From TrEMBL:
Molecular-function GO term, any one: magnesium ion binding
Species of provenance: Candidatus Thiodiazotropha endoloripes
SUPFAM superfamilies for the chain: PurM C-terminal domain-like, PurM N-terminal domain-like
Gene: thiL
Record-given protein name: Thiamine-monophosphate kinase
Catalysed reactions listed for this entry: thiamine phosphate + ATP = thiamine diphosphate + ADP
Keywords per UniProt: ATP-binding, Kinase, Magnesium, Metal-binding, Nucleotide-binding, Thiamine biosynthesis, Transferase
PurM-like C-terminal domain sequence ranges: 154-306
InterPro entries associated with the record: PurM-like_C_dom (IPR010918), PurM-like_C_sf (IPR036676), PurM-like_N (IPR016188), PurM-like_N_sf (IPR036921), ThiL-like (IPR006283)
Length: 327
């Protein structure tokens, strides 16, 4: 049987997605076959994570295509950062309501920007018709003795947070208000739509940290996972939480701590490290030009205790974002 021309699906793959297969020596076979062939060194662990973004749940329908391409990969890179893994390969399952080549080109442009920055090669995936949703599976590698996990926090550890918290939550609030935006407000929307995965920080601290997690569902909920899996408790000092100048300007003196520590989409790292590592952490922060703030400590007593700037106990109305919450 003679095939006159490639199908529309494979035409899209060849025109847009094959270009995302950046050259890597460990990619034996990438996009274009039934499966990818990847070479993993014997002394490394394979790290695998997957995230799905659904229209109307994780993003507004009118979000820019390049921002969506960026975020689809960024949220997965954040998982690699939390494990201390070097991101290496990704697969993409893209469900589209229709073939819009301008949208696809923009999506690939946003995806490629991050993929090239972190040397990630797209090695396979699937395209199909239906309501817009994007699933990315990412693979990375890390030496077994350097991997960061949630279950390693130790009593006496300092708790650190990279970057700043609460900007994405404020950005979402601004988008929902549909008001005219200032430059500072647009910065917070960019934090929501174009999060910056802290891969460099994860790689720099993986040989020092006892535990780590990325902040996707809010600091309280995600730190809570570390405490539960490590069998420890913690004290958190709210006045030490890192806030951007833009968020401080919006909030003034009346800070909504619940929104800062319970809303999702920060995609920063929360790590616990021994007290002896304070100078090393400060050095990494200077090297990366990235705030890495000490916000609390790990304790033996179970539970998470929060204190405000007056030293008074503060009790959050909720812990964090939950996809299946009925409230």
């Amino acid at each position: 049987m003679k095939i006159e021309k490639e199908t529309p699906e494979f035409a899209l793959i060849n025109q847009y997605f094959k270009q995302l297969t950046t050259p890597r020596q460990d990619v034996v076979l990438g996009v274009g076959d039934d499966a990818a062939l990847l070479q993993v060194a014997e002394d490394n662990l394979l790290v695998v994570s997957v995230d799905t973004l659904v229209s109307g749940v994780h993003f507004f329908e009118d979000v820019a295509a390049d921002a969506l391409g960026h975020k689809a990969l960024a949220v997965n890179l954040s998982d690699m950062a939390a494990m201390g893994a070097e991101p290496s390969w990704a697969t993409l399952a893209l469900t589209l309501p229709e073939v819009d080549e301008k949208w696809i080109a923009g999506f690939c442009r946003g995806f490629a920007g991050l993929a090239n920055r972190f040397n990630v090669s797209l090695v396979g995936g699937d395209t199909t018709r239906g309501p817009l949703s994007i699933t990315v599976q990412i693979h990375g590698v890390v030496a077994q003795h350097q991997v960061m996990r949630r279950d390693g926090a130790q009593v006496g550890d300092d708790i650190y947070v990279t970057g700043t918290l609460g900007d994405a939550a404020q950005g979402l609030k601004l988008l929902q208000s549909a008001q005219a935006l200032t430059a500072g407000q647009q910065t917070m929307i960019d934090r929501l739509e174009r999060p910056q995965p802290r891969v460099e920080a994860g790689l720099a601290l993986r040989h020092l940290a006892h535990s780590a997690i990325d902040l996707s569902d809010g600091l309280l909920a995600d730190l809570g996972h570390i405490l539960t899996q490590s069998g420890v408790g913690a004290t958190l000092q709210l006045d030490q939480l890192p806030l951007s100048a833009e968020l401080r300007a919006v909030m003034g003196d009346d800070k909504d701590w619940s929104r800062i520590v319970s809303a999702g989409d920060d995609y920063e790292l929360c790590l616990t490290l021994p007290v002896a590592c304070r100078e090393a952490v400060a050095g990494v922060a200077r090297q990366l030009s990235l705030p890495i703030s000490r916000v609390g400590c790990i304790e033996a007593d179970p539970g998470l205790r929060c204190f405000d700037q007056q030293g008074e106990p503060w009790h959050p109305p909720q812990l964090g974002f939950d996809h299946f919450s009925t409230s």
